[in-house]
Structure formats: C-alpha cells, structure tokens
Write a structure and sequence with these properties.
This protein is mostly helical. The chain contains nine helices and two strands. The chain has a two-stranded antiparallel ribbon with strand order 1-2.
C-alpha cells in the first residue's frame, strides 16, 4: 500500500486589509475642501429670509380681507428691505448669496401679492400678466446662470448650497426704479380698501407707469453688460475669505 496522503496544514487567515475609501468619497471630500464657502448666517440675510416667509402670510391676509394686517406686514417687509442693506454695508456683511436672495425676496413678495390682488380685483389682470411674465423670464435666466457658473461636480445638493458663490446679480438702475414703483403700487392696491378718498385716476396712471418700467427693466438685463457676473476662482476665494475673516473677528470679540 502507498503511503497515506499527508493532510494539508491550514495556514492562518490573512490579516484584514484596511478598508479603502471609495473614489467617489475621496473626490467629494477633495472638492469640498477646494471649493470656497461663505458664511450665509448674517443679520442682513436673516432679515431677508424673514421677508421671504412674510410674503405668503401677506397674501393670505389679502385673500381673506384682513387688509389692515396685510398693510402692517407689508410695511415691515419694506422697512427690513432698507435695514438689511444698511447693515450689510455698515458692518461689511455683504455676501454673494445676499445679492441673490435679496431680489428674490422682493420678487416673491411681488409675485404673491400680484396674484392675490388680481384675484381680489384690486389689480388689473393685464398688468399682473406683464409683471409675472417678466419675473418668470428672469427666474429662468437665474437658474441657467447658477448652473453654468457652479464649479463641478454639478449636483442638486451643491446647486442649492448657497454658501457656494458662483455668480453675482447687479440690479440695473431702471430695475431699482421699477422695483420701487411696483412696491408703491402694490402697497397702494393693498391699502386701497382702507382709503375712503377717490384715487381711481391716480391708480390708473400708476398702473401704466409700472407697466412701462416693468418691460424696460426686463430688457435692461439683456443689454446691460454687468447685470449678471460669473465669478472667477479668485473672486470666489476672496468672497469666502471675507466671510471667514468676519466670522473669526466676531469670535475674537
């Protein structure tokens, strides 16, 4: 008989190899570290966000004929619109996101009140269509510029991360005038049920004036060169550095 087969000796299992981080995770962390962020939690931005929240509340008050409350909250929105800009300039708290959400808050308030006042018959439908048509066009343009200016990777999470500066919006002169006229007209329409005097002729003249400036201001964003500015890498780093410096100074105080 042949020799009995020798049982193979069992070798010890190899030590577990350290878990390798997926390439996607490494890339995401690398991009996050290289992409500049800015501090968006400033007093001016908080005031602006409060205007965004106030807009649907004012619309609800108008639809349910609480005109006195609606006028009061509308006045609050107008005051904070002035105060947040002053604070941002006085204490150097300007942010890239502020240049976006400030006009967004104004437009949200205008859109909500334009629809609600048109429903209540306090604003002509033709003028409401002009105002809303311009804002829809500018909104589509803002979405486009945000997408093309966002540094890669272009994900939904990064798209809505407003601490990632990518583009600045600079309102044109006629746009500022138009915004003031629109707010004045919308305020007058909101307060009209509380006014006993006959202001029909004045309101008609104001409506045609606002229609003209609305069309003009919409066109100004097309032919004005610096209305929308896509930030370079150096400008993004500078904006993030200013925000970080302001945060550090506040912590030291």
């Amino acid at each position: 008989m042949g020799q009995a087969e020798k049982a193979p000796s069992e070798s010890p299992p190899p030590p577990p190899s350290p878990r390798k981080k997926p390439l996607k995770e490494i890339r995401a962390k690398l991009v996050s570290s290289l992409t500049p962020h800015e501090n968006i939690y400033t007093v001016p931005n908080i005031l602006t966000f409060s205007r965004l929240i106030a807009a649907p509340v004012i619309g609800y008050l108008v639809l349910h004929d609480y005109h006195a409350w609606a006028v009061g909250l509308f006045a609050y929105a107008g005051i904070t619109d002035l105060v947040d800009g002053y604070i941002a300039r006085r204490w150097n708290l300007q942010t890239v996101v502020g240049t976006v959400i400030d006009p967004m808050a104004d437009k949200t308030l205008m859109t909500v009140l334009t629809v609600c006042l048109a429903i209540k018959g306090l604003l002509p439908v033709w003028l409401a269509a002009i105002i809303l048509g311009r804002d829809v066009g500018l909104g589509i343009a803002a979405i486009y510029y945000r997408y093309i200016s966002l540094p890669p990777p272009k994900t939904m999470a990064r798209y809505w991360d407003f601490s990632l500066p990518s583009a600045e919006v600079h309102p044109t002169t006629i746009s500022k005038i138009n915004t003031a006229l629109q707010l004045a007209l919308i305020g007058a329409c909101t307060a009209q049920p509380l006014i006993t005097a006959d202001i029909a002729n004045a309101m008609t003249a104001a409506q045609y004036l606002v229609a003209t400036t609305t069309v003009w201001s919409g066109a100004s964003y097309i032919y004005t060169k610096d209305a929308v500015k896509i930030l370079s890498r150096e400008e993004k780093n500078q904006g993030a550095g200013q925000s970080e410096g302001a945060k550090t100074k506040k912590d030291e105080e």
